[in-house]
Amino acid sequence: MAEVKTVATTGNLVVAEAMRQCKPDVVAAYPITPQTTIVEEYAKFVAQGRVHTEYVTVESEHSAMSACIGASAAGARVMTATASQGLALMWEELHIASGMRLPIVMANANRALSAPINIHCDHGDAMGARDTGWVILFAETAQEAYDNTIICLKVAEDPEVLLPAMTCLDGFITTHSIDRIELFDDETVADFVGEYEPANALLDTDSPVSHGCFAGLGGPFFEFKKAQRLAIDRSKGVVERVGAAFSELSGRPFGLVESDMMDDADLAIVVIGSTAGNARHVAKEMRAQGVKAGVVKVRCFRPFPQAELVAALKDAKAVAVLDRAESFGAEGGPLYLETRSALYDLETRMPVVNYIYGLGGSDVRLELIRQVYSDLSDIVSGSASPSGLVYLGAR
Amino acid sequence: MATLKELTHREDRLAGGHRLCAGCGASIAMRQIMLGAGTDPLVVGCATGCLEVSTTIYPYTSWRIGYVHNAFENSAATVSGVEAAFKALKRAGKIPADKKIKFMAVGGDGGTYDIGLQSLSGAMERGHDMVYVCYDNGAYMNTGIQRSSATPKGAWATTSEVGAAQAGKQQKRKDLTSIIAAHNVAYAAQGSISHWKDLATKAEKAFAAEGPAFINVLATCPRGWRSAYNKSIEIAKLGVQTGYWPLFEVENGEWKMSTSSKGLVKAGRKPIEDFLKPQGRFKHLFAPENSDLLAEIQADVDDYWEYIKHRCGVE
């Protein structure tokens, strides 16, 4: 029976705790705000002798992911953490990790990308990595950051998947705020994630293998990519299965998409991360005023839960997609593009509008959410037409 | 040091049939170094480059040992991870405590002197138990002979062209071996494919050393050097005999000039022209208008030779 300890601490510290409980063989990491307290906490575990992990304090994020790739190819269980510019510096390595089918798990403390330099939350970093072949989960709360980290490891290492996975939490809002969190005992987590059985480990010197071979013109590059596509498609069922198993253990819900008040909702907000809480709060206010408001949170962004999102939104009369990231030059933000595309096959398509919000930690005040529902209400009543992209709350 | 007879009985860990050019110095360097490495299991990480693309064309591999290629600038960081995994898995009891594996990271001069310098420096500083081998052919040969910071002054390259306004590369080459020695690694050395015994001995020392070690090998590239494929060893030998490429080692901080170079102190070095002449990349230097540049190149070689002599305490 799982033992549960309730603590008051930050998102970063419970991500570090989840990492420790997953018993990685290698952690190779480089410090960057607001991820730092994860790697600092892990360094304490190393110093205290609480982990068997070889902790490689690399000289850059590029080398962090490079070392993770080497360690994972070697046959080790590997975890790391980064944020923002660090994730950007890893970019080519993110593709290599997934292309080599290495189940590395990385926490990403979502932070804006320069320029101008800014250390606060938005999803521009992770969204920039959305097509790198990683499984990507976003946490709303510190509790979800803890849960998602453990779920990510079990998904990544599943023989049906063998892909790297990213567990994202909102910079400062979730990484540094103190929250009430339920932690499992070590044994429960160890039992849940199980032992990692690597295929084709480099360190199995009796059966030498070559990793990262050349597949140039006329070679099987195209087929490798197809295999990768099939793997991330398969990962959806695995995320669901692992999430359900975790949910049974924790008593907390897990969904690729998590809906609130959507059963009869006319007005829906689609959102990722910590802002879901704000949206839910405002939706309840609206409900008290007789407005049928609802919230759809996307917890798993890759693989994208298209069918689940459609099921959640199909009866809404108007949908607002809140993007904490830009896709400059596109019709809207990344979540908007995906959501609108997902809804295309509906027989009756409702208006879908896009709000870019909270970039660089720009405050997400409740009145901004109220404005979104009010806009949706106007669209449904016909007093306003669907508008183009809105920079929510920009001066 | 193993005898030649013993070396010939060791398994060649890089199989024939790879797609490197005839006369390529990279595979010669690899085979000499891996023969010298001994008989413990070896795992190698290779940077993107000629050696990598020519030895692992899927579904084939020339490597009879564990091999990993990640990207261009990070073979040292990648092997850091492999070596870290070895330590951790031993600690976890998943690999027997008495199991021995040697680790080698490889890169060309582009992947080592330039884009991989940070990754290499980091790995050396962290003290991973690995041998980093740079096969230095003095340009980005895989992408088509572009200049690197290892390209010799005056050399033609496709990004240091020869024309009315410029006679090849304008800058001196970087002294990478000294830079790595300054990391206070257990072992750092310069070798050449022309001096197999010296190189195999250096490999043996490098792999025996506890912690990080580095070997920089002069490796002819007939394609980029514009030289005859059957002259590769001869030209590399001239690189040593002219003092362009002094052979030396730094063992636990102690600098030592290797015998083949030390002998030149008394016997005298050949003029740098002897190294340059058989290589088409230096052809323009022998035009009358470039005689000053040729003298300058000789002076640079002399300076570096004196510097290495001084570091090695050779009078």
Task: Tell me briefly what this model is.
Chain A has 395 residues and is of the alpha/beta class.
Secondary-structure map:
The complex is a heterodimer of chains A (395) and B (315).
Chain A: E1 4-10, H1 11-22, E2 26-29, H2 36-47, E3 54-57, H3 61-74, E4 78-82, H4 84-89, H5 91-99, E5 105-110, H6 124-128, E6 135-138, H7 142-156, E7 165-170, E8 178-184, H8 186-193, E9 210-211, H9 221-250, E10 257-260, E11 267-271, H10 275-288, E12 293-298, E13 300-302, H11 306-313, E14 318-323, H12 334-343, E15 352-356, H13 366-381, E16 390-391
Parallel strand pairs in A: 2-3, 2-4, 4-5, 5-7, 6-7, 11-12, 11-14, 14-15, 15-16
Antiparallel strand pairs in A: 1-8, 6-13, 10-12
Chain B: H1 4-9, H2 25-36, E1 42-46, H3 50-55, E2 66-69, H4 75-91, E3 102-108, H5 109-114, H6 117-126, E4 131-136, E5 162-163, E6 166-167, H7 176-181, E7 187-192, H8 196-208, E8 213-218, H9 222-225, H10 232-241, E9 248-251, E10 254-257, H11 259-267, H12 272-276, H13 291-311
Parallel strand pairs in B: 1-2, 1-3, 3-4, 4-8, 7-8
Antiparallel strand pairs in B: 5-6, 7-9, 9-10
Helix pairs in contact in B: 2-8, 4-6
